[in-house]
Amino acid sequence: LKCRTPLDAIQWKAAILESMNSVGRIWLENHPYGSTFPVRRAQSVQWFVDGRSFMEHAANMMELAREEIFIAGWWLSPEIFMKRPPVEGNRWRLDEILKVLRHPDHYLSSGTFFWAHHEKLIVIDQLIAFVGGVDLCFGRWDDCRHKLADCGSVKISEQQNICLGGDFSMVCFSLS
Fold first, then answer.
1. Where is the PLD phosphodiesterase domain (predicted)?
2. 136, 80 in Cβ contact below 8 A?
């Protein structure tokens, strides 16, 4: 820290010491399991096992966003429906929820538009986070029934058309 005057240095030192002795104190204590972060009590946490519950909840939280939605993932399919069956037109398509797909320092003019992260992370307004497990892409939406068919290829009715084709992922190979 470089200060212009001795008075600035004294004021900075006082501010740093005050912070260390109040809100900053928690960062100076030992934390369990060798963690560098303090234990946070009374936090709301929810487990998601299948893509359906995860994507529905993430879509609901995205709808509440006021400032920003940050998504880091290995694969992202903007055309994926976050809630199914899609009974409200395209409202729950990811690209309709987000409206903008851009990284702050990746511009089309620079030739960098596609980038990859193996992390799976969604942060909404820096208050709500979804971490680990599911990319927002085709082949990840699933429910507890784990059906081995692409419901989108069989047109029962618009109300029951869950996958809309291309969402079911199964590798087929020959043992010949």
1. 113-140
2. yes
Q: Indicate the burial class of 72 (C-beta count within 10 angstroms; 0-12, 13-18, 19 or more).
A: middle
Distance CA 61, CA 2 (A): 42
Alpha-carbon distance of 76 to 126, in angstroms, equals 20
CB 94 within 8 Å of CB 80: yes
Contact 162, 92 (CB under 8 A): no
Among 78, 74, 70, 86, which Cα is nearest to 162's? 86
Q: HEC profile for 86-149? A: CCCCCCCEHHHHHCCCCECCECHHHCCCCCCCCCCEEEECCCEEEECCCCCCCCCCCCCCCCCC
Q: Give yes or no for a contact between 157 and 147, defined as CB atoms under 8 angstroms apart.
A: no
* Tokens 């190979």 found at: 173
**Judging by beta carbons within 10 Å of its beta carbon (0-12, 13-18, 19+), is residue 111 exposed, middle or buried?**
exposed
- 115 is written with which tokens? 């980038």
